[in-house]
Amino acid sequence: MKISDYLTLEHVVILTGATKVDALNELVSAANDFIESIGTEELARAVWEREKMMSTGIGQGLGIPHVRLPGLDDAVMVVGVSQAGIADYESLDDKPVHIIVLIVAPQGKHEIYIRLLAKVANVLKQDDVRKAIAETDDPAEVYRILTEGKV
């Protein structure tokens, strides 16, 4: 499994919003441009229901919201980068989130969902990778780093 199987350059967004609501809405909107079978409202509702269970801010500047929905053929990833950081993300370490990876996976395809989460987490656990992504405003550079798994 490769990140490039689920992430395209068009799925990388330099976030303009300063709040968690703004950032997640930007990512939902970007994802919806590529998922015709799911409406914006349905995707947004799923993302916010997931956030109500527990914040997807896992610490170290990362947020990884992830949902499974019926009606999808394959998983989709959208990555948002905020150089300023999203201070109200409610991260486990109470620090601003700079990189948000939204994973939207088909319901019933648990293996793909778990493997993609693991792959993303494995790449983003590297301090130099997170730092390089958080400091750039170039979607092509974010895409390159994530798909190559290194700076």
Write the layout of secondary structure elements.
Blueprint: E1 12-14, H1 20-32, H2 40-53, E2 57-59, E3 62-63, E4 66-69, E5 76-86, E6 97-106, H3 110-124, H4 127-135, H5 139-148
Parallel strand pairs: 1-5, 3-6, 4-6
Antiparallel strand pairs: 2-3, 5-6
Helix pairs in contact: 1-2
Report on this model:
The structure is a single chain. The chain has 151 residues and is α/β, with parallel strands linked by helices. It has one domain (3-148): Mannitol-specific EII, Chain A, CATH 3.40.930.10. Helices cover 40% and strands 22% of the residues. It has 5 helices and 6 strands, in the order βααβββββααα. Strands 1, 2, 3, 4, 5 and 6 form a 6-stranded mixed β-sheet that branches. Helix 1 packs across helix 2. The longest helix has 15 residues, at 110-124. The radius of gyration is 14 Å and the shape is globular. The chain starts with 11 loop residues before the first strand and ends with a helix. The mean pLDDT is 94.
What are the salient characteristics of this protein?
5 helices, globular, alpha/beta, 6 strands, 151 residues, 6-stranded mixed sheet, Mannitol-specific EII, Chain A
Low-confidence stretches: none
Which CATH first-tier class would you pick?
A: Alpha Beta
CATH superfamily: Mannitol-specific EII, Chain A
Helix count? 5
Could you say which overall geometry the principal axes of the C-alpha atoms support?
A: globular
Q: Percent of residues in beta strands? A: 15-25%
The biggest beta sheet is recorded as:
6 strands, mixed
